[in-house]
Amino acid sequence: MTIGTSEAIEILGTISFAISGSFAAMQKRLDPFGVLIIAFVTSIGGGTVRDLLLGDTPVAWMRDVNYCLLILLTSIATIFFKRHIKKFKVTLFLFDSLGLGLFTMLGLQKGIVFGLSPGICVALGTITGCFGGIIRDTLLNTIPLIFRKEVYATACIMGGILYFSLVHFQMKSDLAKVAVIAFIFTLRVIVVRYKLSLPKFGY
Amino acid sequence: MTIGTSEAIEILGTISFAISGSFAAMQKRLDPFGVLIIAFVTSIGGGTVRDLLLGDTPVAWMRDVNYCLLILLTSIATIFFKRHIKKFKVTLFLFDSLGLGLFTMLGLQKGIVFGLSPGICVALGTITGCFGGIIRDTLLNTIPLIFRKEVYATACIMGGILYFSLVHFQMKSDLAKVAVIAFIFTLRVIVVRYKLSLPKFGY
Amino acid sequence: MTIGTSEAIEILGTISFAISGSFAAMQKRLDPFGVLIIAFVTSIGGGTVRDLLLGDTPVAWMRDVNYCLLILLTSIATIFFKRHIKKFKVTLFLFDSLGLGLFTMLGLQKGIVFGLSPGICVALGTITGCFGGIIRDTLLNTIPLIFRKEVYATACIMGGILYFSLVHFQMKSDLAKVAVIAFIFTLRVIVVRYKLSLPKFGY
C-alpha cells in the first residue's frame, strides 16, 4: 500500500497539532494524561466539529484508530524529548502552519463533496483548520490565541476564497489545492515573522 | 416572494444577536475577524446546538447561506458604526430580548415537530435561546452572564411552560406563539428595568 | 416493572453527578436556575457528547424525560438540604466515583454495540465518564479538575483496558463489567485517600 500526498500531509498535520497541544498542556503543568488529552483534542478537534456539523458520524477518528495511535505516540515522544524538541520551535511553527493549510483544504473539500455553497465551504474549511486550537485554549482557560494574536482564521478564509477563485479561472483542482496550502502556510510565516496583525478596537 | 412574520422576526433576532456578539468581542479588543467569528457564533450557536442534539444535520446555517451573509453585514456595520449604535443601547437590549423570545419559540416548535415530550421541548427552546450567549462568553473567557445576572434562562423556561398551558386551554397555536414571545420579551424588560434577580448562594 | 442492576447504578450515577454539579455551581454563587443548568450539564454531558460523536440522535436524555426529572429533583433537593448534605462529603465522593465507573462502562459498551475497535471504545468510555465534569468546569471558568488533580481520566482508561483484558481471558461479560466498575471506584478512592498523582511538568 502506498501513501498519497494528501495522506502524507494529513499525517504531518496531525503530528504537528499533537505536538502543539502537548506543549501548550505542559506549559500549564498538566499531568501526562492531561497532556495526552489536550494533544488529542487539538489534533482531532477541527475534524470532529466539521463532521458533527455535517452529520457525518461516527466522526472520522472513530473510524480509523491509526490517527489515535499516531497522536498517542507523538504525545509520548513530545513528553520524553521535550528539551530536544524545544530547540526546534521554528520547525514546530512551520509544521503547525502547514497543518493549518492542509486541514483547511480538507474541510473545504468535504464541504464541496456534500454539495454546500462556496461561502459555507470556506467556513467549514476555517472551522476544520482552527477549531482544534480554540478547544485547546478554552480547556486551558485562556482566551483562544485565534482571537488575540496575529492573522489566523483570516489566513484560512483568504485561502478558501483563493481556492474558489483559482478553480473559477480553470486551474486544475489538485494544483489549486497545493497553491492554497502553500498560500496559507506562507501568509502565516510572513505575518508571524514581521509581527503583522489586524487593527484592534478600544474605547 | 413575501416574507412571513416568523421569518421577519427571525431575521431581526439574528441581527440583534450578531450586534450583541460584535459588541462583546469589541469590548474584549479582538481584531475584526475575531469580532466576526464571535458575532457569528452568538447568532447561530443556539440553533446549531439544537440541530446537533436532534441530529438534524447539516445544521441550519449550512443549508441557507443568507443567514451567514446577514450576520457578516451586521457585524461589519456594527464595527463601522459602533459609536452611533452605542447610543441605542436600549434598542439593542430590546432586540436581544425579542430575539431570545423568538429563538426560544422556534426551538420549542422544532421539538414538537420531532415528537418530543413537552418538558424536553421546553429544554430545547431554552437551549436555542440561550446557547449562543453561553458559547460567546465561554470563548471570551468570562463566566457566562446567563449564570451570573438577572433572569435569563428562567424567562425561556417560563415562556415554554406558558406555551403548553395556553395550547392546553385551547388557545390557537399562532396566537399562543406571539403571546409567549411577548411574555419573554416583557419579563426580560421588567427584570432588567427593576434590577430583579433570583437569590444567590453563599456559605 | 422491575429495575435491573444497570439501571439502578445509572440512576445512582445520575444523582451523584447532579449533586456534584449543584455543589460546584453553588460554590460559584450562581442563582438557582444556574445551579439547575450546571447540575443538568454535569449529569448528561458525558452521554450527550458520546451520542453526538456516534451520531445516535436525538441524544439519550431527549428520549427519556425521566432522567431530566431525576436531575431536577436532585438539584432542588441539594439546594434545600445543602447544609445537611455537606456533612456527607465523603458519601458524595464515593457516589461520584461509582458514577464515573458506571458511565465509563456504559460508554465502552455502547462503542462495542456500534462495532468500534477496542481503543476507540476505551476513548468513548472515558469521554462518557469525564465529559460532564469538563463542561461543568469550563462553564464555571476554571481549568477542568480532570487536568489538574489526581488520576481521573487515567482511571477510566485503565478500567477500559482492564475490561478488554478480562473478556480476552474468557471472563463472563457481566462479571467483567462489575469488576471494572469496582476497579475504577477503588482506584479513585485509593488515589484521593493517599493524595497520589501523576508527575507534573515544569521548566
Automatic annotation (TrEMBL), chains A, B, C:
Subcellular location field: Cell membrane
Domain of life: Bacteria
Residue span(s) of domain Glycine transporter: 8-82, 94-166
InterPro entries the UniProt entry points to: Gly_transporter
Any one GO cellular component localisation term in the record: plasma membrane
Topology relative to the membrane: Multi-pass membrane protein
TM helices/strands, residue ranges: 30-49, 61-81, 112-139, 151-169, 175-194
Keywords (A to Z) from UniProt: Cell membrane, Membrane, Transmembrane, Transmembrane helix
Family, as annotated: Belongs to the UPF0126 family.
Protein name: Putative membrane protein YeiH
Organism whose genome encodes this protein: Pedobacter duraquae
